[in-house]
Amino acid sequence: MADKQWDRRPDLPWERGQQQLGNLAGMAAAAGQEARVVAARRRLASVRLTDEERRVCFDELAEQFAIGRLDEGELHRRVDLVQEAVTHGDLLVAFGGLPAPSFYSPPAKKPGRWRWAAFVGMVWLALPFFLTGLVFLVFGKEVAAAIFALPAVAWVLVSWRWASAPKRQARRSG
Asked: What CA dihedral angle connects 8, 12, 14 and 18, to 10 degrees?
């Protein structure tokens, strides 16, 4: 019983280390995301606002009001600032202390082709084993052929499934 309680304690040294590492990774990702948002704001600072971007800003302010970050007077003041804004740089005052509007967020990254490059490398690793299995098959050693060729074929099929996973996920979600 005591061993089971010991296993469930959240303050074990290795679990604290894992939690700290996870927190550090999360903070690094958030800092990178924040840097991309700041860069997008800086890039668009002198660009004039469109009607659609103003509508997005109004929606963002309404959302901040709905979750309780703004009171009614503050909402009206910030809506007036958005209506008077001419460029994206003018929105900095309207969104001071609030999350940036969603049009500053970078688009989601598309899955890269590095998985397919790794797949080609995995096929090249499996090729000698497959060819050795074929040689054994030609000379009548079926058991040896199976020992060499079947794992190589399985390796290629598993690596293909791994390489095509992002495309399948995109098809499912989109």
From this structure: 70
This prediction has a pTM of 0.46
Cα(153)–Cα(146) distance, integer angstroms: 10
DSSP string of 114-129, one letter each residue: HHHHHHHHHHHHHHHH
65 with 82: CB under 8 angstroms? Answer: no
- Residues 66-84 as b/e (b if ≥16 CB within 10 A, e otherwise) read eeeebeeeebeebbebbee
* Ramachandran area for residue 91 (φ above 0: left; ψ -120 to 50: alpha; else beta): alpha
Separation of alpha carbons 174 and 146, rounded Å: 41
Confidence category of residue 156, pLDDT binned at 50, 70, 90: very high
List, for residues 31-54, the tens digit of each pLDDT value: 666 777 777 777 777 888 889 989
| Measured distance CA(151)–CA(155) in Å, rounded | 6
Q: 87 pairs with which residues across the strands?
A: 48
Q: How far from 141 is each of 129, 145, 154, 165, 172, CA to CA, in Å?
A: 14, 6, 20, 36, 44
14 by DSSP, 3-state: which?
helix
